[in-house]
Amino acid sequence: MSPSRIAVVTGANKGVGLAIGTFPPSPTLHPLTPQVRNLALRYPNSAFNNGPLLIYLTARNKERGEAALAALHHDPQLHAAAALAQDGGLASIAYHPLDIAQTHSIRLFAEHLRSQHPQGIDVVVNNAGIALTGFDAHVVDETLQCNYYGTLEATQTLLPLLRPGGRLVNVSSMVGKLNKYSAAVRARFLAAGSVGEVTALMEAFKAAVRDGDETAQGWPSAAYAVSKAGVTAVTGVLARELRGRGSSVLVNSCCPGYVKTDMTRGGGVKSVDEGARTPVLLALGEIGGVTGKFWQDEKVIEW
Predict the structure, then answer these.
(1) Does an H or E element contain 77, and which?
(2) Known catalytic membership, residue 148
(3) How much is the mean pLDDT over the chain?
(4) Backbone phi, then psi, for 165, in 5-degree steps?
(5) Of 34, 88, 109, 277, whose CB count within 10 A is highest?
């Protein structure tokens, strides 16, 4: 049976990305698999349910992506809930390669979606991202290329594929809150009214790091934090642009919380499934038409 709904989760082979696809947690889940699970389990009781759901689990590493897919197909919680089509449920999961740091990879995936689902898709959760150790110009360039520029390009490429009433969720972070910046830099973030203005902030940070005086210019010496501030800011800009054109697509960013993943070196306090709750709410839940906001713990917060 052809799917009625199509969802995409980027960076879905590990941590929160895998958990978004399934819910609740499974102690035997493959370590590369916990955001895809929650979509599969929450979908039947959501307002989006109008028939079979196909979830694309995307990852840049084929071996890990396919291992995550296999783990989900054998997940005891999914089996007990009869969530997957193989058990008589509504959800099917498919792996597709995607590296959001590579333009060619993003375009290939979009072409696949257009050819296989010409009527459009319904949900995108951009979870892909990196957190490198150390701090220098190279770390800043690599981090921003994936977390900001990659997320932005994936968002701008996939947004036109979303059907009316669709959802796009960019997973950001509380570490991107603006309390770490000078008043002048903070004001520029809050006043940004276009993608170009947010991107100019990212370029200003890169230039300041290259010059070795980012602190004097009002920036934190933290590549990941600045990249996520950029994600939160640009998500708000894109949402306002869509709303201005009369679109019913809802676009929000969120922090999953301090989750026990490779990215936090196992130091988190939330499980990956707890971290998936807010992204899945924004993807499938009743949020009162809210768009362009930053969420944590299933509510809008200031950033």
Answers:
(1) helix 76-81
(2) no
(3) 89
(4) 85, 0
(5) 34
